[in-house]
Amino acid sequence: MSDLETPLRPKRKTAVVDFLVQFRWIVVIFVVLPVSFTIYFLTYLGDVRSEMKSYKRRQKEHDENVQKVVKRLKERNPSKDGLVCTARKPWIAVGMRNVDYKRARHFEVDLSAFRNVLEIDRERMIAKVEPLVNMGQITRVTVPLNLALAVVAEFDDLTVGGLINGYGIEGSSHIYGLFSDTVVAYEIVLADGRVVRATKDNEYSDLFYAIPWSQGTLGFLVSAEIKLIPIKEYMRLTYKPVVGNLQEIAQAYSDSFAPRDGDQDNPEKVPDFVETMIYTPTEAVCMTGRYASKEEAKKKGNVINEVGWWFKPWFYQHAQKALKKGEFVEYIPTREYYHRHTRSIYWEGKLILPFADQWWFRFFLGWMMPPKISLLKATQGEAIRNYYHDMHVIQDMLVPLYKVGNALEWVHHEMEVYPIWLCPHRMYKSPIKTMIHTEPGFEHHHRQGDTHYSQMYTDVGVYYAPGPVLRGEVFDGSEAVRRMESWLIENHGFQPQYAVSELDEKNFWRMFDAGHYEYCRRKYGAVGTFMSVYYKSKKGRKTEKEVQEAEQAILETPSAEVDEPLDY
């Protein structure tokens, strides 16, 4: 696609909901922000109390809580009770997908106690954590030790469980892969109450490969052992402006971290962190980071930018300055760099509070930012919720690196959303064909960023109100997402299921591979106990009858159709 002209659209009639959205900032300032700040503070106190306990005591409490889950599962009567899910309220999830599956009859299991860092093993370089540990909590523990998870997702509120069962990425994913790729072992409570530890080379290796992207539909994740890496106190960040068309921007982005000579595993040529933000169809800023010591950062002439202070300019706006001042370098404290997009929720904060990026708001009220996404969802009401589905885009398109330019042109033509976030990640060639997988034969093409064991993908992050909506024109968000999903299927791309999906069941399993997932569902007794990943992700309300019929259809599938899938 090279024609960047966007379609002409008629003007949209203004409705009452437009005014509710326009003045929603009143509710956010006087209700959501104060309550969010209170919750953040109380959560912080709870984390501090947890950190004061010995690892031995935390493990003892963990074992007791696991047995409570086992006991609760055994209390379920399959003939009378609904399918099993967590007791977490539907609006608490960080993702934009509505948790409509909980509106059907279900059997709840409380996992709210699983929010402790169980161990930091500096010899094995492993962090053992429970699923409700979030990124802010884990970095608070590890960074002072000059350690970090290999992949640290940007938002403080993102939890280990969500990043494993769903999707997690960060600027280091071009080296380490997705968040789930850095997990060494899972502790899972299965449908029958068995507690198993799954690794890539033990008797539960098939389960190990099936857990990522399964949305918790194979069992309850109660702990994970995750890879740690050594880090330094600062991130040396280089901001490089790029001016050109979208294909040229895509190439400059690729060149920022993927050597054209194919030497992708050379740390001298590949930065520790990478991201690119595209501000217009012709302007972008590529950022590359390398860990730096405190001694280096504080050398005379170096600029240190503590971006974590509440009164500082939002990070995406700060980076945009490179378009005017040219390439520049600065040093950011490592933990502050990890969470650089938290305060502004990337750039969504500009829509939620249009004036929150102004100096006076940042100085006087910026300490209360960000509003909790869960509270924004809880206070929006059905009308605003539907408005955001139709008039707003929050989607990630995972596409092969060599197709990023085409993806950018597609987004511009169909959605006109800016800024756009680009973040690369390795997709490993797995011994088992999992729900997401590399393109067949990719290793024979020797494309930029690829190695013999992994294909380089990119997250094209599309988060904002589309251009037609900002201009007051007609825009069909559901249809745009359907076209996006079709484009992804045709181009071997994937859509993380935290977002609103329009996929029907047939197309869902065209995008994702069902073979190994369904094999594990049958083998480990998840069918008839946990809802399938499609019905958990499906848009709209799920009736109990609809879900039961879907589960029954799987149970009635001839066993020959669910034999263990072949490796590829």
What does the model show?
The protein is of the alpha+beta class and 568 residues long. It folds into 3 domains: 57-230, 2-Layer Sandwich (Uridine Diphospho-n-acetylenolpyruvylglucosamine Reductase, domain 3); 234-386, no CATH class; 393-530, no CATH class. It is 35% helix and 18% strand. The protein has helices at residues 16-22, 25-52, 55-74, 135-142, 160-165, 173-176, 205-210, 246-255, 294-297, 315-320, 322-325, 334-338, 349-352, 359-365, 373-378, 381-391, 404-414, 467-470, 477-490, 505-511, 515-523, 533-537, 544-555, and strands at residues 83-86, 106-109, 117-121, 126-129, 147-149, 183-189, 195-198, 220-230, 234-243, 273-280, 283-292, 328-333, 393-400, 420-428, 454-464. The strands form 3 sheets. It has a 7-stranded antiparallel beta sheet. Helix 8 runs antiparallel to helix 17. It is globular, with a radius of gyration of 23 Å. The two termini are 32 Å apart. The mean pLDDT is 91. This is Delta(24)-sterol reductase. The chain crosses the membrane at residues 23-46. Keywords: Membrane, Oxidoreductase, Transmembrane, Transmembrane helix. Its main location: membrane.
